[in-house]
Amino acid sequence: MSFPYQNIIKGNPIRTLVRVIPPSNFQREDVKIMANTISLTDSNQRIIEEHDCQEVYGPETDVSTMFQNLFRGHITPLVMGYNITIFTFGSTGSGKSATLEGNAREAGLILQMADSLFNQLETRKHHSSKLNQGNFQNYSYGVRVRYVEIIDEEITDLLGNAGNQFSDALIVKETVWEGPTIQNATVLTVQNQSQLSQLLTEGRKRRNQTSNEFGKLSSKATSIFTIELIQTQELVNDSAIENVTILSRLNFFDLPGSEIMLDDPESIRVRQGSTLNKSIIALTTLLRDMSQNQSKDDYFLTETSTVTHMMKDALGGNSISIGIFCLKNGDPKGSSYTLNMMKRVSNIQNFSIVNDGKAIGLLKRYRAEAIAASSNNRLGGYNMPGIEGELGNQKLQDLERRLIEKDLDKIRLDEERQRFASKLTEMREKYNQLIRDKGDLQSELIKSEEEKLEVSKALVELQIENTRLMEIIQTEKYESSNKLLNADGELLELKIKEEKALEQIQKLQDRLKEVIDDKRELEIEFVALKKNYIEVNKKLDDEKIKNQNVGMELINMVNENKALHDEMNDIYKKSSSTNDENARFINRIEKLENENQEQREALVFAKAEIERLKTEMLKYDILEQQHRIDIDNKKIEMEKGFFEITREKQNEFNKLTQEVEGNLIKNKDERLLWESQKMELTHKNKLQSRKIQELEERLNELMKFNDEMTAENGKLQLQLDEMRSVYRNKLIQFTSEQARGANGDKPIRIGYDMNAREELIRSYNEKEIQLSEQLEKEKRLNKNLKMEIRSLKNYARQMKYLAEDWAPVGVPLPEILKKDAPTQLDDEMLGGALVADQNVEIDRLRKRNRKLEEELRIIQDQLLNQTNKKADKEVDIQQRLLNEIEYMKSTNVRPGSSSQNIEILRKERNDLYEENKKLIAMLKDNRKWDAFILQKENERLMKQIKQYEDGQSIAPISGDSGMLKTKVQFNSFTPTKFFSFQNRLCITKRWLNNWKKINLSFQFVQLWLKNNLNLFKSTYKRLHQNIKKKSWTLKRVEETIDRKLLGILIQLNQNIFQYVLFYILV
């Protein structure tokens, strides 16, 4: 029969305490504290529940008191090698994080325990280096920290590099040396409490403060702060040296809010997912199972969540655990649930051991066996050795559930990926559609004008916004400067207060010296009185020789009194050097004085006996005795007064010393606070200054780019005006030739002029394309160089800022950090070739323009002479076109003339070129309109008119009526073509809606065509009636048709060509 170990081996129960925070926002106080009993009350102050607790700290207790009463005593076990775990449990807002991490008013348990730990370690190291503690030597220690946060079963490293997106994932892994640990987490070594405080502050800033549809994620997060202590020393045994290593950990768990557990866990999983609240659900389930079945089972599954896995040693394992259960007023259900969980936790027992090298090696062996057994179980079967089948089935079900959850998550991710892919396809289609719409919109000049206005407006708004941002930056800079000045002023005030405190201390020290001098004077006076007393005693001894026995007794008493006074003097001297022994010496002096008083009373009694026995004693002896008694009484009163004064002075001095020390500590803390705020403000001011400098540089670059664009816009506008003047000269020359051809002065050469115009346009287009390609190439090169230089400048600026931040305090910066990066771009070097080519081309165009202007003046003189001769004609086409040109020169509304955006000007020019090419192709298209055939027809009709004027016959030779019918049909179909061409011209009218004069010209053409068409129709009807009546011969009909149509067609052709060419050239 085995020994009943379970009856005698017991662990250490988890120690629990309750902390209640003060009520806020007029909350009802429903948590009542009486000794170690907590009562929960309703709105009528009736007790609903009562719970007995091990320790209770009310709202009036701060964290420092808790640390001094309980947690400070656990630093020694930590140094001895025990693992310590502290966790907080409670609802959201009950003060869990503030208890561990602290707040602006007071430090938390982490910093206070770290401070005490470093103090104890330094003390131990100091004593071990000076004293020989047995056989131990060469003591050293190292402290490392780790800080992580767990949200939605994902671990975030709060001490790692935040910008590293390619770091390894953090997972909880069971290792043979450490047990459950977080793999790939950052572990940093600290040397003192200030470094640890800095790391804790940085980690708290990195904690997740975002929210989702279920509330703030901070209420569902778990933070784990671990302090790892490694101690090494050498043990010398019989000239053999053995290295002794002790490894211990101090873990702080800030658990999620427990208010979510008031609902059903299954409904929580359905509403918020299976992983968001998995930590708190798994933890409460584990605590319930361990509190109920710990006596039956020694194994509990802790791998159900990341938090429970990390708390494997804290709950029923190798650790001294302390649970802080936080309550708040106004939450009766949450408080009840927290107190019930406290009772469950208090039933859990831990088995903590000293984690020296041998224990760690033994634990490593057991962990290796457990991991191997677990691996064998996964590979060979589900029945784990040493565990009941029901537990194995439960683990199997958990594994299957986790596998199903992972599969569901994978399916959900695939669906989301497909949905995102479909959205991406739709976005691409929309993007392509937008590109097509953009191409269509770019073909309209009106919308380009609107976009130009919008861009101008946006530029103005950007400038306004830039000005506003600059004002805001200046305001913030001014406020930062004021704050910095205020901080300097307050720091100066603190220094003044410190000087005043030092002056007060000096005054107190002077006062103390005066008290000591008074004390010395009293001692001198006491010595004088003592000498007088000795002299009196000697006289009394001489007078009392008769009674030797009484005299001897008196002498002995006097000697004893003298010894007592000597001892009293020694005590007085020692009392001035040691304040701690002063009270003890005073008590002893009082005891001696009491004994002395008793002896004096005995002496008085003896004297009275002497007086009674020897009534014959002289009156002098009686008077002398009374005088001695009076002196003794005065001496006693003086001693008592001296002691009282000394005690009062000492108390006052101690009080003032404590006040001064408190003021010094307070001033030191305030000075450190102001210095930290000053450093923070200085850093912010530096960041703002750097940002302002970057914005100013960027603004200068934009202004420079704007000036360049304005200059280039002016150049292009000049080129466009020169090209327009050239085109207008060509148009005037062409119209003059048309007028001379119409008047018979010179034959019409439409084909030649068209070819010349096309050749001119082609030459300009080729030259424009060549220059544009060269310009775009230079611009791309310039843009790439600017981007590279800008990136180098940003890199140099960041390196400069980094060097300034890490520069030692008080050391002047080197000259290289005071200079700006030499990254100014030489525009002349980059665009020299392009500017030279443009200047050459502009000079060539100017020379050609002057030549064309001379030719234009000659042509104008010729046209002026012809105009004087033909003043009686109905229409002067040349004069009308010249008027149109002069009107276009005088008007301010020109496409692109008011634009400051070079891109919009290029777009307008390209649109005009495209429209010009379309019109040229349309004129050459035989299916739509053949200008050359129309011109030939005009020449043939003019030839017939000339023959008719000369008296020649123009009738058909055959005299066939079919020929006449064909001609009539052709002439009737010709106006239809004119109308279709007029409709096409009207369509192009929307490109020139700002040109009012051209619109009037098109309206004039339309009116002219309608009038001539009506005339032609009436003529055709009259001819048709005469043909039916057969009153006209075929010859007469042909002559009538030819005469009527000849003038119409000639005038129509001339007007159409004039306006078409005018539109094309302009």
Characterize the structure shown.
- Helices cover 67% and strands 11% of the residues.
- With 1066 residues, it is an alpha+beta fold.
- Among the domains are: 13-133 and 143-379, Kinesin; 481-685, Helix Hairpins; 925-1066.
- Helix 13 runs antiparallel to helix 16 (619-742) and helix 17 packs antiparallel against helix 19.
- The longest helix has 124 residues, at 619-742.
- It is elongated.
- InterPro entries: CCDC78, DUF4472, Kinesin_motor_dom, Kinesin_motor_dom_sf, P-loop_NTPase.
CATH architecture of one domain: 3-Layer(aba) Sandwich
- Fraction of helical residues: 55-70%
List low-confidence stretches. 381-388, 746-753, 823-831, 891-900, 926-931, 952-961, 987-1002, 1057-1066
Q: On the 0-100 scale, what is the average pLDDT? A: 72
CATH topology of one domain: Kinesin
Number of strands: 18
Percentage of β-strand residues:
5-15%
Number of helices: 25
Q: Compute the separation of the termini in Å.
A: 119 Å
The largest sheet, given as strand count, sense and whether it forms a barrel, is: 9 strands, mixed
Under CATH at level 1, the class of one domain stands as Alpha Beta
| Overall spatial form | elongated
Radius of gyration: 56 Å
Considering the protein shown, what is the CATH homologous superfamily of one domain?
Kinesin motor domain
| Structural class by helix and strand composition | alpha+beta
